[in-house]
Backbone:
């Protein structure tokens, strides 16, 4: 944690994969994290090329923290690791679906998933 | 479609909800779209405040197209509408989980979901 981005060897991601990515203005793709087995959507996190490279080559979900501006191995401080079973890129290259074995709670609040706050919606048909 | 953003009345979103959002540098939150019933993760799209407002008040999933730079009612051209059953915001306000009844295929390629491209991953435990 607390790595200096300037020191980390950047862009070790396979260039064939890197060429498919469509990034946000700050160089990130969205990573939807789904639980293996239950299929529950646990959280959304962000990856730059290096975080995706680390995820694919270590099998431990690794993200880029927008708030802390550092790489973040999920579970490194909480013990709530995510062991990656599958990663799929979407048709336009701006999102990943990461299927994981989740240890403990996915959310830092202790909840199973991060999606607690239901918004009022008018249902149509 | 093809609206001029300058003409659209912006920011009709409930200010209580707007205050919770943590947006990308271009003003967007990620919307994970999940199918009601199957629980399948169908796609990822993007919403600005106005797209979220329209989604919540019409019950039809409405996104901001980053490539076309316009609002986009899913299904308006394809007929593959998404009727919204539930919307939940995550704990840090940068992602929405939108549960929908999907008409037809979610992906413009005709596939059920947009996540076709499996990437090679080393699994750990």
Residues:
């Amino acid at each position: 944690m607390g790595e200096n981005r300037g020191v980390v060897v950047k862009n070790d991601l396979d260039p064939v994969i890197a060429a498919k990515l469509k990034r946000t203005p700050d160089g990130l793709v969205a990573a939807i994290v789904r639980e293996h087995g239950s299929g529950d959507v646990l959280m959304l996190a962000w990856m730059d090329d290096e975080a995706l490279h680390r995820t694919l080559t270590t099998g431990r979900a690794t993200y880029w923290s927008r708030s802390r501006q550092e790489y973040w191995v999920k579970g490194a401080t909480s013990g709530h690791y995510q062991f990656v079973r599958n990663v799929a890129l979407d048709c336009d290259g701006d999102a990943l679906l990461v299927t994981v074995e989740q240890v403990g709670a996915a959310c830092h609040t202790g909840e199973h998933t991060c999606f607690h706050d239901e918004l009022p919606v008018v249902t149509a048909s």
